[in-house]
Write a structure and sequence with these properties.
OB fold (Dihydrolipoamide Acetyltransferase, E2P); five-stranded mixed barrel; 10 helices; Rossmann fold; five-stranded parallel sheet; alpha/beta; 13 strands; single chain; 4 domains
Length: 403
Amino acid sequence: MNNERTIYTVNDVNQHIKSLISQDTSLKYILVKGEISNFKNGAAGHLYFSLKDKDSLINVVMFSAYAQKIVFVPKNGDEVIVLASVDVYAPRGSYQLFCYEMQQVGQGTLLVELEKLKKKLQLEGLFDVSRKRSINLYPHAIGVITAKNSAAIKDIVTNIKRRYPIADIYVFYSAVQGESAPKEILKAFNEAQKYDLDTLIIGRGGGSSEDLSAFNDETLVRAIANSKMPIIAAVGHEIDTTLVDYVADKRASTPTGAAELATVDRREIEQHFQYCLDDMKEAIIEKLNDMRENVSERDKELQEIFTDKISGLKDNIDDIGLELKEALANKLEYLHQTLVLRQEQLKALNPRQILERGYSITADENGKVVTNIKEIKKASKIITYISGGKIKSTVDEIEERKL
């Protein structure tokens, strides 16, 4: 029996623990309250400190991208509430908080209230995955709610036109931060519901928790939950999660990402059609090759059939040729005899032949043949045609008689 056991390296153990913690969703984006101690401001703008209470202490790191959003100057002894995720620093085998936002306790109560509202709406099912609708990637019309002249609207419109230029874009401007923002966003949302839109994007650039507070408004969140068209939320950046992000059908970390979620790239369509054309071309070529092989196999059979048929036709043609030749000779002989007969008949009717037999022809002085005695008058000049010549004379006497 093999009793050998796997031997792990120290890094294997730390990486395994890090993987377990990173997969635990209950340790992501949690609110932690404590007192700042061991505070250090790094040269690159990163913040390193510890949070402690009367029983425990935990290390915290806050990178400069998030530290820049803090609206107060933190120091040792400050009581704060942070939005953070639990992380493991594998090289040292220690765990720490990865901090995204930090508020002093007086202001941190807003985060607590926000967490309560989030749980309330979650229990009502407003954030359930089963409620999420799919996005029509071939839209005829897309709506956008954001601030006028903002970088967000430029990014969204530019990328939609680049990816799917045939879609119509309807923009509903609104303030996206400040006291009036929740009402303005809700007004713009209700106006957008009157249009036949495939998708509605609600977005803005990043900002502090205070800047994004309008997108945590309960009335707005409930309205979005009842939207007649799918909603894409593009509020802030990856860490700036609002209640609108949770209730939306899709969430984008940036306005550009929202445009990508709302449309299919026309280059993908062109590529798909090219694949289809290539498949059709291959299928046609394959079919033609099959037909060519079949024809080749039939060639020998057809050649034999044609050879026999042509041989038979040749014999028949020879026989037919002889019959046609004989019939043609008979026909030519008949036509020759007929022609000789007609010539004899014409010869007999020739006036010259009549004259040679002793007859004459009389004409008036104008050369018109006289066929009746009444055409001649006394003293008329006449011409008499006889064999060998003609005689000109004047009529002295006319005698009519019946023959």
